[in-house]
Amino acid sequence: MRKTLLSLTALTSGLLCAGHALAACEKPRNAFDSVYCLSTEYAQVDRELNQEFGTLRKLLNDGQKAALKKSQLAWIKDRDAQCSYERDGGYFVNLQCAVDKTQERLGVLRERERECQSTGCVEAKL
User: Fold this and answer.
1) 3-class SS at 61?
2) In angstroms, rounded to a whole number, what is the distance separating the alpha carbons of residues 114 and 124?
3) Do 56 and 68 form a contact (C-beta atoms < 8 A)?
4) What is the torsional sign of CA 98, 114, 51, 32?
């Protein structure tokens, strides 16, 4: 009984914290709420991007895989150049920029997957 009560308390606390986080994201009260919400959103879209990259990669031959990897590394370099910088020993990241760029790239990869499955993969578009 005690374990059940302890588990229920932990579950309730977790739900309250999650509810608070969701409320904070609907209307951030300060910069820290905004950073929390955007970092959570970025983590989710980055996870989706990595999954899509893996899915697309499975459809490609070796030459196409090399082209995809090259374009992905170029995209990362461009995203970093546009969305972050280093100053005074610290890194600064514009999370909204990172989210937007990652969502755009995710769309590109999804389009390439659809293309590969329907008409075939065009290496120049990877």
Assistant:
1) coil
2) 15
3) yes
4) positive
Q: pLDDT tens for the chain, 126 residues: list them.
A: 444 433 433 444 443 344 445 556 888 899 999 999 999 999 999 999 999 999 999 999 999 999 999 999 999 999 999 999 999 999 999 999 999 999 999 999 999 999 999 999 999 999
Amino acid at 46: D
pLDDT at 10: 41
Residue 126 and residue 67 in contact, taking contact as beta carbons nearer than 8 Å:
yes
- Using alpha carbons only, how large is the chain's radius of gyration in Å? 20
**How far, rounded to the nearest angstrom, does the alpha carbon of residue 67 sit from its chain's CA centroid?**
22
Give the whole-angstrom CA distance, residue 73 versus residue 82.
14
Which of 13, 18, 38 lies closest to 28 in space, CA to CA?
38
The reported pTM is 0.79
Domains defined for the chain, CATH in brackets: 30-125 (1.20.1270)
Q: Is 37 strand, coil or helix?
A: helix
Residue with tokens 């090259």: 70
